[in-house]
Amino acid sequence: MYDVAIVGGGLAGLTLALQVNQQAPALSIVVLERGSFPYPTAAHKVGEATVEIGAHYLSHTLGLRDHLEDEHIRKFGLRLFFGAGQHDDLSRTDELGASSLLPAISYQLDRGKLENHLASLLEQRGVEIRDRSVVKNVEINGDNGHSLTVQTGDTSDNVHCTWVVDASARSGVLKRALGLAKPSSHKMCAAWFRVDDDFSVDEWSDSDAWRSRCNGSSRRRSTNHLMGSGYWIWIIPLAGGKTSIGLVSDPGIHPLESYDTFEKLHAWLENYQPSLARQINGAQPLDFLKLKNLSHDCEQVWSSDRWAITGEAGYFADPFYSPGTDFIALSNTFVADLIARDCPNAERGIRGAVYEKMYRSFYESTMSLYEGQYAGFGDSGLMAVKLTWDYAYYWSVLAWLFFRDVLTDLNFLRFVQPEIERIRGLNDMMQAVFRERANEARVDAGRGRFFDQIAIPILVELNAMLLEPCDDLADELQKNCARLDELAPRLLDLLKEEPIGDCALLGDLGRRITAI
Asked: Could you read off the pLDDT of 219-241 as tens digits, one per residue?
């Protein structure tokens, strides 16, 4: 009889096992993984990029910073190029990114290396990991414990546990067993591959002025995006000199059938992004994968009956902004707290309901960033405004709650709930405006403009504040929301192409947007 059985030994399951073990080391934990350790490096799984919540979770919450620094790549932020399909020289495109590193760290991950490290660390800490184990059946019995039928090779046995957690990603073992799958109205598709090449967008221009924009740092370390109406392409560096490349699209504009093989994708790139197509000419991909309907929903993700669903097995929003590890961090934090506390059923139900509402709110806020907006992804003016807002909202509220370690503080959450709901309403209004502009499907061919996030004061300040101690959390949140209140109308004026004059929040963003 185990205290906790985790179905799935990927990033969500392994990190949850470590977090529970750190918070409640006396609990017995088994991780049931259908794959076989060690995982291959470089071409194991997609989802290499992290942003601030996920990176902080891995490095600080779980204590993996030394491993991340030694074995992975310090990320140089998110970087977008507009008009890259119309120019051979990338310096002639519009570029949105940072000229230097922001204070809060994020990483480009080699998922194989990370998950192998986690598995080894867990075994050292006494957590049992059973690979090549397929869960065939799950019986949920509430406080009487649960029973899992597990096939390992030719052997079948039953695993009994107090808590069972589904971390099986899209397999959704428990999600399917309980009939909790819920379709998403956000229809996206994608195809991706990895190559054994460290090619860098820094080489796509000979312009010394353009190369010097980043103060000696390489753009290769960014999550680089080639943007167009209805699609975006990622170019992500991997440790060991390899590169991950993927195309994500709105199928109503660019259907998956137009790029669902490597050969078709290469032809698609020759048409829409010829510079990238030339880079991969002759390349032998390490893998090629495709996926229809990326986004998916879930009716419920944990219960007072001591079961839970975490990571991609529950919700998946959209890979733009790389929020996948954020969702793992948030969900695991809630689930680990419920398991470690082992409250009586009534209290567990109350806590679970509050946590579910918070997690659901995060998912819905994140989905609002994408729904109905892909048509505007080639519009650099819109995206410069949108990203400024999306970053500010993320760092002011969502990331702030995680960095301040208040997600499981019920008293604090009740106190700040009205303000959080109010500012979420403001975000919903902003996304509705962005959606309306996106419907125009404007495409900017690029004018060589640089929207430098380091030159936008509010972004630098909010990012840096995540790392600074605070004595009065409620006051800090109130001030963050007040700045969002001030920021929103100024950004809307920029979308209307109305001058905003000098603005301490935005620096010269208005002049950069209107520059010829």
From this structure: 999 999 999 999 999 999 888 88
What's the mean per-residue pLDDT of the chain?
94
Look-up of token digits 């006494």: 126
Query: Is the bond leading into 499 cis (omega within 30 degrees of zero)?
Result: no
The CA distance from 306 to 165, in Å, is 9
Question: What confidence score (pLDDT) does residue 433 get?
Answer: 98
Tokens of 290: 């495709």
> 393-411 b/e with 16+ CB inside 10 Å = b?
bbbbbbbbbbbbebbbeee
Ramachandran quadrant class, 403 (left: phi over 0; alpha: psi -120 to 50; beta: rest) = alpha
- pLDDT at position 45 is 72
- Burial of 32-59, coded b for 16+ CB within 10 Å and e otherwise, reads bbbeeeebebbbbbbbbbbbbbbbbbbb
Of 302, 316, 399, 387, which Cα lies nearest the Cα of 348? 302
Residue 389 is classified by DSSP as H
pLDDT at 399 over 70: yes
Q: Tell me which H or E stretch contains 97.
A: strand 94-97
pLDDT tier, 140 (very low <50, low <70, confident <90, very high otherwise): very high
The CATH code of domain 1-72+110-181+296-368 reads 3.50.50.60
Task: Provide the CATH topology of domain 76-98+184-292.
Answer: D-Amino Acid Oxidase; Chain A, domain 2 (3.30.9)
To 5 degrees, how large is the angle CA 384–CA 386–CA 391? Answer: 100
Per-residue pLDDT tens over the stretch 56-100: 999 999 999 999 999 999 999 999 999 999 999 999 999 999 999
SS3 of 65, please? helix
Q: What local confidence, expressed as pLDDT, does residue 421 receive?
A: 96
Give Cα 156 to chain centroid, integer Å: 36
Q: Where are the domains of the chain?
A: 1-72+110-181+296-368, 76-98+184-292
Count of C-beta atoms within a 10 Å radius of residue 515: 13
Tell me the three state secondary structure of residue 217.
coil
Closest CA to 46 of 284, 238, 308, 282: 238
- Compute the distance between CA of residue 100 and CA of residue 382 in angstroms, rounded to an integer: 23
Which uninterrupted H or E stretch holds 135? strand 133-139
Burial class (CB in 10 A: 0-12, 13-18, 19+), 274: middle
* Tokens 């006051």, located at residue: 475
As a whole number of angstroms, the longest Cα–Cα distance in the chain is: 72
Position 136 scores a pLDDT of: 92
pLDDT at 44 over 70: no
Helix (H, G, I), strand (E, B) or coil at 74: strand
